[in-house]
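Morning, I've got a small favour to ask if you have a moment. It would help a lot if you went through both lines with me. Thanks so much in advance, here it is.

***
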Amino acid sequence: MKPTDFSKYISDFLARYLVDEKGASFNTIIAYRDTFVLLLNFIQNMKQIKIEKLTIEKITKNTIIEFLDWIQKERKCSNSTRNARLAAIHSFYKYLQYERLDYLHECQKILSVKFKRTKKEGIKYLTIEGIKLLLRQPDTSSLKGRRNLALLSLMYDSGARVQEIIDLTPSMLRLNEPATIKIIGKGNKARLVPMLNAQTELLKNYIKENRLNEPYANMYPLFFNSRKEKLTRAGVNYIVQKYAEMAIKENELLIPERISCHSFRHSKAMHLLQAGVNLVYIRDILGHVSIKTTEIYARADSKQKRDALEKAYVNVNPNEEPIWTKDANLITWLKRF
């Protein structure tokens, strides 16, 4: 069976272009792949076009719009998920328009499909007392409890994304002073984040206990399950939810109703900001490409806004009581005004 032009271009896009030219992360490539798996299922089941006969010309702007509507109506996807799927499709057609100049017009029509507005929710973060409460929950008398404490503590102290934590190996830690952790972020960009002494001691004990300080263990996962495999995102989220539920029972006022792995990252950023750390340094610690991304924490921090207002406050109110409160007849006062 002769391969179609669509199979040729989608294979080249995922296997070569994203990796070699865009330098996309593994997670980005997987997310894009999943989008096109969904799109192919839609075309085959809803449009009645066999995949082995699918060509570039058979996918139009209307096809893409119908697909986006389908994932929202049938799969109950949110606007955010729809937009993520559309971003993957846009990326493919930006690549395709240079590969197939004869198809340029249709590529541009597909690229004109708009993203939907999404509801911007407030940043969910914990106070310092909330973080302390959460980190008191793991049972440190058990091996798994000590692992979970080291995991959650590092998630907070480093401000790393959950996937960045999952991908850590012992070789990425420098536990001698000055202690640092090497984090590989989006686009395979590396950054060094300093660690405090308390965190370093916790990791030293964890690594020694699990024999991760041996030369052969350099490239082992830093955090692993009972099968010695690195934890999954779902696995880390389960750990977070487990201890959040325990902490809520102890003090529901300190733990937000909805908490996720990303809440640790948000919390670290907010606490650094509230401590007066410059946004540029916070950007570098979090691994943001632009400081504009980091500025969301400054906009969300009501404490800093309140402090700024208090510092700039000038009392413009008159010291004496307003005249209209002394005049029993307000209408008489108004006529004299």
In short: The chain has a mean pLDDT of 86. The chain has two domains: 5-111, 128-309.
